Amino acid sequence: MAEYDYDLFVIGAGSGGVRASRVAASHGAKVAVAEEHRIGGTCVIRGCVPKKLLVYGSHFAEELQDAANYGWTVEGMKFDWNVLRDTVLRDVARIEGAYTQTLDSNNVDHFLERATIMGPHAVRLANGREISAKYILVATGAWPVMPEFEGSEHCITSNEVFHLPELPKRVVIQGAGYIAMEFAGIFNALGSHVTVVNRSEAILRSYDQSLRDRLLQITMARGIEYKFHCPLTKVEKQADGSFLATPGKLEPLKADVVLIATGRSPKTAGLGLENAGIELGPKGEIPVDDYSKTACDSIYAVGDVTDRIQLTPVAIREGHAFADTVFGGNKRNTVYDCVPSAVFSQPPLAAVGLTEGQARNKYGNIKVFSSDFRPMKNVFAERHERGLYKLVVDANTDKILGIHMIGPEAPEILQAAAIAVRAGLTKADFDATVALHPSMAEELVLMR
Prior knowledge:
Layout lengths: L5 E6 L3 H12 L4 E4 L6 H6 L1 H19 L14 H25 L3 E3 L3 E5 L2 E4 L4 E9 L3 E3 L25 E5 L3 H12 L3 E5 L11 H13 L3 E3 L4 E6 L5 E5 L5 E3 L1 E4 L3 E3 L32 E3 L10 H16 L13 E3 L5 E5 L2 H8 L2 E8 L2 H5 L6 E8 L5 E7 L3 H13 L4 H5 L17
Parallel strand pairs: 1-2, 1-6, 2-3, 6-16, 8-9, 8-14, 9-10
Antiparallel strand pairs: 4-5, 5-6, 7-15, 11-12, 12-13, 17-18, 18-21, 19-20, 20-21
Helix pairs in contact: 1-7, 3-4, 3-5
């Protein structure tokens, strides 16, 4: 008889857990996965996928306004939140089904219930069943942080925002990271009055200062209000179901929805990691080595639960590398330099590599090339918003250290440009590349 029930037991069926399960099974391992919510995890169910669909839906507000200059007459325009919301949720269910089918087609057993760790080789399901496994992989992701203040129970997080019964007329959002800025753009475009409150004066702290300043300027012009240095201290529910949200010592703000978007913390509470001798890090994360192994040789962790880089493609790479290392005889890890990222704000921004400030601190002698332009589409639509692209270059080697962009379709353009940064190409390589005209992307090879 086999020594263990499974070769691998995965806790969490998000992007990282599903990838690890599938690849480990393809290497011949007997695999099971437990998921207490829905298969697909944060990205598919309550994160980047439904949020991007809301972004697409909100873009039509601008496109329909601009249509007249392109010769289109659009009569009787109206927006129905329920239609967009329900269509998004149906597509989430479709993708969840596809993820489930992936597990089934790879003969991965899945349990739709919570699992906790009982020891180095044992887990217990919520129904009381105990299962043994040679290896355990924790891929439970992260969970929205809810600050403690009076009336916080009246607030929602990004988990609940996809299920709003109606489009709110007034939205107060606490936080200024990517989740906050993306939902601020969505609700603003759909016609809600949006106020962003934040404990500091910075938005999107990890991005280049020039992009952050440009986004702040544009979003304020679009009608989004900001209250800096004043996090919420109280939220009071009114008789009509609305709220009064008090930012710091300022006057209360009237709101129909108060969205808290102050970050996400690793979802490790109650997992039983102490039963395997694993101590959590200061942020509640699971410490791991370069190959995602914890302090217990039989337990690994990938994705947001390790608090390395909280991005879906990173979790997928980590899960794949883990499976190849442990079950495929191909020891490899994930490389974290030159990871591209984007914020699907309106307009969106995208970046890869070092910011100007980071490059100056690390290399000292750098060159910065930029293109500050008005996209053709904005000119024709009589919109005055300007795009901004930056190349950060090592002055000694001519190597491109970072690319930073804000403007229409910036994330789509950056993906290809990120390959060049990862490959170590130089500014001369960009200069030698013929421009694709007319396009916004050509600005990348025209900077002098």
